[in-house]
Amino acid sequence: MWNLFRAEWTKTYKRPANIGLLLITLAIILITFVAQTGIALYNGKEDTGWTAAQFAMMFPNGFLFPSIILSAIGSMLAVVFMGNSIGSEYSRDTWKVLLPRRARRSDFIIVKIAICLLFMICLIIISLIFGQLMGLIGTAILGGTLFDFDSFSLGTLLKSLIPVLLQLVVFSSITLLVTMAGRSTIMGIVFGIVGNTIFNLAMSFSTLAAKILPNAHISNLEANWLYTGEEQTMMFEGVDRVFGTHISLSTSLMVVAAYIFGSIMLGILLFQRRDMAGQ
């Protein structure tokens, strides 16, 4: 298993598409901070935006923008990664070479999932560090205070990333299943991205869809875990409107877990029976 893991990781960091995902993410973060700094400089020190920009980019507030960006595009990044990771094995017929060497075919899927999680965690860490560095540079240009260590909480930062990780895991698992069923990188990626958009639209029009699909349940978990007091009350009201009723934390956990483990188990079962292109 370890040798398989190392081999897969080597393929992962050498694959141009994965490098592209990281560079695109960093480019979006860079543009965000450059735009914020530029707008503040254009408006001048007398404008309230100057102080707001200083505050937003200083440590540890500079972590906020990367986390917001990752929350918006993280699921798409995971979909593209997983679709390309699984689909490339079918398009190049590498399963036919690799499978005879392994007794358990499920090892391949387990390693693919583990590598996806590792890559996305590395991408998140790099994005956060890069974003905060850009924030410090922006704050230095504006002449503000660079650090406020008293307001930094590692636990709070990690908690804010939980919904991002949930989105990554849920939609990468679904993409894994679809890619294996269709044996196509394009099908997996298109379904993952379009499916996420359709899920969001469906739950806004139908309370039944909201109860079945994972998106609203992830929002419910976020409301339970990340907010307190009045903010949590407001989040609960918004989530309850989407569901049409109150949904408990345990119910949302079960729904999200069902999508993750259900997709993975179905993918493994499908792979056991129909593993190689043309067979």
UniProtKB/TrEMBL annotation:
It comes from the Bacteria. It comes from Herpetosiphon aurantiacus (strain ATCC 23779 / DSM 785 / 114-95). The chain crosses the membrane at residues 21-43, 63-87, 108-141, 161-179, 186-205, 247-271. This is ABC-2 type transporter. Keywords: Membrane, Transmembrane, Transmembrane helix. The keyword Transmembrane applies.
